[in-house]
Write a structure and sequence with these properties.
Elements lengths: L2 H27 L7 H29 L18 E8 L2 E5 L2 E3 L3 E8 L4 E6 L5 E7 L5 E6 L4 E7 L11 E7 L4
Parallel strand pairs: 1-4, 3-9
Antiparallel strand pairs: 1-2, 4-7, 5-6, 5-8, 8-9
């Protein structure tokens, strides 16, 4: 079972147990006891255990799912120097990509910025799976390092709601075969 499902089930179980605890507490509160001191002492102890338990479950879920996050090592180059540097600028509602053609098997550094508002530069493969992503922000140049293994056309889309025509903000990266 994938770690994402395990984390989801742990979260769901925690929510169910927490909800049951609230229901139990609400029913118990209807029978107003005369002496609240024992209930306060027990309640604080239970709350402390709940907090420690939920923190432990959260850290375990984080530890199980973090290594499986997408795009490992896309922020650092695979070799000392990228072969191709691609300058990308987002502007409502289009991308300027120069050059827009790269070679398969070579390290590509995308230098991504924006002229107006925040955008999100997302690169997809032929199956519409996202293969790379980085924020495009005004006044900031973010770097995305990628090596395209297969030649083809890689669609580019904006993943940040940037205005009225956000859905029209598309482009493409052409990956040509390596000369062999």
């Amino acid at each position: 079972m994938p770690p994402e499902y395990v984390a989801g089930f742990v979260f769901l179980a925690s929510v169910i147990v927490l909800g049951a605890g609230f229901i139990f507490s609400a029913r118990a509160a209807r029978h107003g006891p005369d002496d609240y001191e024992p209930i306060h002492h027990t309640g604080y102890r239970v709350r402390r255990y709940w907090f420690v338990g939920l923190m432990a479950l959260g850290l375990i879920a984080l530890g199980l799912t973090l290594p499986h996050m997408p795009y490992p090592l896309v922020r650092e180059p695979a070799s000392a120097t990228p072969v191709t540097v691609v300058h990308v600028t987002g502007q409502q509602w289009y991308w300027t990509i120069s050059p827009s053609t790269v070679t398969a098997g070579q390290v590509v550094e995308f230098e991504v910025t924006s002229k107006d508002v925040n955008h999100d530069f997302g690169i997809y493969d032929a199956n519409s799976n996202i293969v790379g992503q980085v924020q495009a922000m005004p006044g900031v140049t973010n770097h995305l390092y990628m090596t395209f293994k297969k030649p083809g056309t890689y669609p580019v889309r904006c993943l940040e709601l940037c205005g009225l025509d956000h859905t029209l903000m598309t482009s493409a990266i052409i990956v040509k075969p390596a000369k062999g």
